[in-house]
Structures are given as structure tokens and as C-alpha cells.
Design a protein that fits this description.
There is one protein chain. Helices cover 44% and strands 16% of the residues. A six-stranded mixed β-sheet has the order 3-2-4-1-5-6. Strand 5 and strand 6 form a beta hairpin.
């Protein structure tokens, strides 16, 4: 069976004032991506199809992984716009603590996503239903071509939803999965025709040694 390996982008710029500034890899993010690419090559896993979303942090991650080939893009692999969701919830005035303090940010984000999933935040740029629909379209796009090893660079929320949908889990499980996904972690699916199964979730073989534990991050 063919494999779809979905890698979360490397560490981005947490605490940036706007989405554009956040959408760049940090120096650590580039190192994480390079380690991930080297790990896959050492294991003999070289993709025959490359796909990213349209976000810069996703494209930069693929570039730093060092695989040759012309990547395709599909916006369905983009992250939900958490800046927009938070801005919608707070009427355009996101509290400073939500922007800058990690604990406050992720607690508030969790509350916001649950409200969004329940049909709230009606003025947000994307509804929960539209988010789910575009991710399924992206998944179908990734498995439609005759490739044996498909590498996708995506984001935590998207990976959480791909995994939850594959397992038939409730919508709230997407968030629990989302918040576990480490930067440059690898989530592997296997597929053939209409079959699609989860094989591995949130693995970081390139960062698990004691010498690289300092390179682990979640945002």
C-alpha cells in the first residue's frame, strides 16, 4: 500500500503581532526540518510526490528538508486562521496576554476552537464546516495520483483533523490531537483505492535522542 506522510511545519514565530509575521520559520524551525529530512533519507524513505499548503512556514519547512522535486500546493492543507478566530472572539482586540503568554494563549485558543466547532464565531473568515470540508478535499487530492510515497507539509490543526476524521472521532477530539502535534512531527497514513488508515501519529524519530531533546517544540 502507498504511504501519505504528513509532517507539521517547523517552529514558527510565536507571539508575532500578526499572521504574516508568524508565518515564518524560526532558526530552530529550519534546524528541525533539516533533521527531519536527513532522518527520512537515512531510513531510505524518499518521496515521489511533494505537497505543501500555501503558507510560507510550510514551504520553508519543505525547502529545509532538502528533497529534490517540484512541490505541488493545495490550500486545503493550510492551518485554520487562529489569528482571525481570536480576533473575531475579541472583536478585534486580542488581549496582550493571549498574544504573548503561551499558557494563556493555548487555554484561550482551546476555548475559542470549541466555540467555533459548536457553530459560534459566525463572523469568522472560515466556518468549522468549511475547514473540515477543505481538509477532506486536500486528503483526496494527495491520494489520487499514482505515487507510492507522498510527503505533505501541513499544520497542527489540519493534522489533528485528518487524524480524527480517519479514526471517526468526534470533532472535539481534533483539538486534543492538534495540541499534541510537535513541530516537524510525522503522522503516517497508508492508503489504497478507497482504503485509508492511520499508521503512526506525531512521531519525532529525528528529535528523540538526548542530544536533540532541546530541539523539541510545539508552536
Amino acid at each position: 500500500m502507498a504511504e501519505l506522510l504528513v509532517v507539521r511545519h517547523g517552529q514558527a514565530s510565536f507571539g508575532a503581532e500578526n499572521a504574516a509575521n508568524y508565518d515564518q520559520l524560526s532558526d530552530l524551525g529550519h534546524k528541525q526540518a533539516a533533521f527531519a529530512g536527513a532522518c527520512l533519507r537515512d531510513a531510505g524513505w524518499v518521496p515521489d510526490r511533494l505537497i505543501t499548503g500555501t503558507l510560507q512556514r510550510q514551504k520553508q519547512t519543505l525547502a529545509s528538508m532538502g528533497f529534490a522535486g517540484d512541490p505541488e500546493t493545495h490550500a486545503g492543507f493550510n492551518e485554520y486562521d487562529f489569528h482571525n478566530l481570536l480576533s473575531t472572539r475579541f472583536d478585534g482586540n486580542i488581549p496582550d496576554a493571549v498574544r504573548a503568554d503561551r499558557k494563556t494563549h493555548f487555554r484561550t485558543l482551546r476555548e475559542t476552537i470549541l466555540e467555533w466547532q459548536a457553530g459560534g464565531l459566525e463572523n469568522a473568515g472560515e466556518s468549522w464546516v468549511d475547514f473540515v470540508t477543505r481538509i477532506e478535499a486536500a486528503r483526496a487530492f494527495a491520494v489520487q495520483a499514482p505515487a507510492e510515497k507522498v510527503l505533505v507539509i501541513s499544520s497542527g490543526g489540519t493534522i489533528g483533523q485528518l487524524t480524527a476524521a480517519c479514526l471517526g472521532a468526534p470533532a472535539t477530539q481534533m483539538l486534543a490531537l492538534n495540541l499534541q502535534v510537535k513541530n516537524t512531527s510525522m503522522t503516517r497514513f497508508i492508503f489504497s483505492n478507497d482504503r485509508f488508515f492511520l499508521h503512526e501519529f506525531n512521531a519525532t524519530p529525528h528529535l528523540t535522542s538526548t542530544k536533540r531533546s532541546e530541539y523539541m517544540s510545539y508552536s
